[in-house]
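Possible regression after last week's pipeline update?

I re-ran a chain I had predicted before the update to compare outputs. Posting the input and the new output here so someone can diff against the archived version. Not blocking, just want to make sure nothing changed silently.
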Amino acid sequence: MRTIVLMSTYNGERFIKEQLDSLINQSLIPSKILIRDDGSRDDTVSILEDYASRYSFIDYYCGKNIGPAKSFFELINKCEDYDYYALCDQDDVWFEDKLEVAVNRLQENDNSIPLLYAGRFILTDVDLKPMKSDVSSLYSFNDFAHSLIYHTAPGCTFVFNHEARKQVVKYDVNKEYCVIHDAIIHKVVTMFGKMILDNEPHMYYRQHGNNVYGLTANKAKEFIHRVNNFISGNVKNYRSNTAKSLLNVYGDECSEENRELLKIVANYRENKELKKELLNRECFKSNTSNDAFFKILIVLNYI
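New output (post-update):
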């Protein structure tokens, strides 16, 4: 069995040693750790060079700054064939059993279909001190319909099998719409296979103020942040644009049911009947307070 950890780095000198140490001390040692540096201007590359010189299973290369989504997709496309692929951020710390637990859970399932594991995390401050947080909404759904509306656990918890990679690499982020790499992976795997959610934490998810994508322990602040993103246009029409791109890439090979769901989310802004479907179809509902928030966004054509 061969496993690979994929990491994209950018100006990560402050925390990356802790993360690399947690990777090399896994109970299931990765067959390979492949790192792409996304144009760092600090000592990140020097640190990578040092670790690569001491550990034969660590390899890295440097590229121009293209952002985390394209950087991770390049890694997924560039690496050789492995049985399992784990995504890793530069500023977290993995528990010793993280990779082993994920692989074991995946091996319990049918590996002839795309599989994606997503685990819990402990949200921490910059010094790895746990912060009170409720992230239960990230572990509520593992189906395709909900993946088109709701976010799941962050990509740094993801481990997926070879069949999942075979589907993911069909998506070209240089041609198709992509804001966040893990959201695309999440949707692609649930479109064709199965997502496995683990309610036990196996890593520290560090929040330090400079996270590309992050969470906050304060629900009110998180809500305000989300509203500001929509008002400013940073994620306006993100879901419908993503659905259009997925329909373009996978529309001919996904099931008729999933093709219909994609068409609803992709085209609801131009079609009143599809908007009614998006508002009322049971498979899109969460039965939580989020429903009201997303209904407002759908009515305003913001989804």
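Follow-up from reviewer: compared with the archived run. Residues 247 and 262 are 6 Å apart (CA to CA). Marking as no regression found.
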